[in-house]
Amino acid sequence: MSHADDDTTVRAAGCVLWRPAPSTASPDPTASSDLELCLVHRPKYDDWSHPKGKLKPGEAPLAGALREVAEETGYAAEPGAELPTVRYLANGRTKEVRYWAAAAGTGAFTPSDEVDRILWLPPEAARTRLTQPRDRALVDALLATCLPGAPGET
Q1: CA 82 to centroid of chain Cα atoms
Q2: Pairing of strands 35-42, 10-20
Q3: What is the enclosing helix (H) or strand (E) of 46?
Q4: What is the pLDDT of residue 34?
Q5: Which residues pair with 37 in a beta bridge?
Q6: Are 34 and 143 in contact (CB under 8 A)?
Q7: DSSP 3-state assignment of 18?
Q8: Is it the case that residue 90 has pLDDT exceeding 70?
């Protein structure tokens, strides 16, 4: 039995939330240097990560990912490509988190007990700020995808 089939696996989902940088010298708003990624700060763990959370019973992973983005960041998200699934141990149990690239829509952040701050950072700065190396790999996966309007996208 794979750990994905193990009923003790904690299932979660999230997004690598991105938007075009507000002002750039380059004319291409989808070049990686012209993107900003949204990171959330969780005071309970004092860490920086991508918005994510546990799925509700029977909830589809993509629906859960979009719900978590809205709850944690205050922003609507337009999902894009699915990114690699991340698996790790958390409190002695396997945690499996499915991720999607998602373009930020309208919204506004409101601090909460779960997430007290968000940052919009260029990819390199986001990679440095992320607490877990497994989250840094998702930045690379996002940049390797064809974002809408990116060069080569038709």
Answers
A1: 11
A2: antiparallel
A3: none
A4: 86
A5: 18, 121
A6: no
A7: strand
A8: yes
CA distances from 58 to 55, 64, 93, 115, 137 (A): 8, 10, 20, 25, 28
Tell me how far apart the alpha carbons of residues 87 and 53 are, in angstroms, rounded to a whole number: 13
Q: Specify the pLDDT at position 148.
A: 61
Q: Which two tokens stand for residue 40?
A: 């959330």
Count of all residues that appear for the chain in the document:
154
pLDDT score for 146: 66
Q: Which amino acid is at 40?
A: V
Q: How far apart are CA 69 and CA 137, in angstroms?
A: 19
Q: How far apart are CA 30 and CA 48, in angstroms?
A: 24
**Segment 18-66, tens digit of pLDDT:** 999 886 544 454 455 689 999 999 999 999 999 999 999 999 999 999 9
What's the token pair of residue 70?
Answer: 């809205």
pTM: 0.86
- The answer to whether 53 and 68 have CB atoms below 8 angstroms apart is yes
User: Pairing mode, if any, of strands 93-107 and 10-20?
Assistant: parallel
